[in-house]
Amino acid sequence: MALKALDIYKLLPRKNCKECGDPTCLTFAMKLASGKGDVDRCPYLDEQARETLGSSTRPPIRLVKVGVGERSFSIGDELVQFRHEKTFYHPPGVMVAVSDLWTRERIQEVVIRVRDLVIVRVGTDLRLSGVAIRHQSDDPAAFRRAVEAVEEIADLPEVLMADDPAVMEQGLAVCGHFRPLIAAATEENYETMGKLAKDYGCPLVVKAKEPGRLPDLVERCKGRGVQNLVLDPAVPSLHQFQNVSTAIRQQAITRSTPALGYPVFLDAAATGMQDAAIVTGILRFASVIVVEDPDSSSLLSLLTLRHNIYTDPQKPIQMTPGIYRVGTPGPASPVLLSVNFSLTFFTLQGYLEAARIPCFMVIVDTEGLSVLTAVASGKLSETLVAASLKQFNLEKEVSHRSLIIPGYAAPLSGRIEEATGWKVLVGPRDAAEIGEYLEKEWTS
Ligand code: SF4
User: Fold this and answer.
1) Cα(434)–Cα(336) distance, rounded to whole angstroms?
2) Residues with a CB atom less than 6 Å from ligand 1
3) Which of 120, 127, 177, 217 has the most other CB atoms within 10 Å of its CB?
4) Distance from first CA to last CA of the chain, Å, rounded?
């Protein structure tokens, strides 16, 4: 069981010397209790306390990194079972499969798609994570050629999928130093596969014959010196994946089975129900999901779902405050004030673009609250508006001094005029009416 902050505090030397980087032992204890601290930062702990704290305060699910460079991604290090308790931190890597039966051209077509695809949703770039290379031929050299074909044109994280260590070695000889995820160590091959993972410093998928045998296989791989593991429950149905993956998460979070404290792997393409498997994987704790040739609509849905599940439910998605241009506005163009709640921003921006009236949007920082909530809570105030206009240097952009505020901010109009010296016009409450409003009211 996880120790509480006070229990941890009692085990600390309590010198308040700040050498751990925290101002007091108590704050350090609180950090450890939340799974975000590193026990080794206190140099005064005796061995017994270090051991007790180490096993109970390390993150319940190990952080594992796949790949190197800009597109590398981390998985694991989650702290809760349910998203509403806190948040999920590390979205699953979605890896598109290619086969060593394919031609070089066909492989590279897929790789280019994975490399270049960007879907923009609420101001965020959503991308696929990497490529999974499956060994399906009888030829180890074909596997090597397939890995080379991927490496030739893209710097993407990879999963190497082969059960034969001799085949795996062919792939690792080409890309081993880029930290691909090795899939998989089984009860038959874990000694050789573990050695390869250790020699190349790669994370390793562990696949037992049945989920109940995973802890034992994990311990055996750890015994070979491999720490960065990913669990493949390898169950025959999605229903079973859901149950097993949920049980793994529960036992990891509660630390009742520390050997299950690793991210989970799902080969969605192998289930025969890919779309359903992807959704199940995203919702039920999969950290690496292998997919095959997803069509555009599936991609949009899966990347959007992943994005939604892995945003902090306690923190609205926000825009960066500042000036945004719609079209090519000039000194006489209208200036519209709004808040940095991304849904409000994109709704208003969409209607302004449809109206085809070039204008400036001045987005102020209401900590992601909508207009109505920001007015009610006092987050949108004349002081904020005055400070923002000054900070964004709006006076340099336009020759007039008229500011259109949202209809729901009407109660602030007089105060904003006083604080800014700008003439305030109250816009419509419904963003859908903004085009018509500007046509009628904007005369500058
Ligand atoms: Fe306390 Fe150790 Fe941090 Fe010093 S280094 S403040 S003794 S926890």
Assistant:
1) 10
2) 12-13, 15-20, 22, 25, 28, 42, 44
3) 217
4) 67
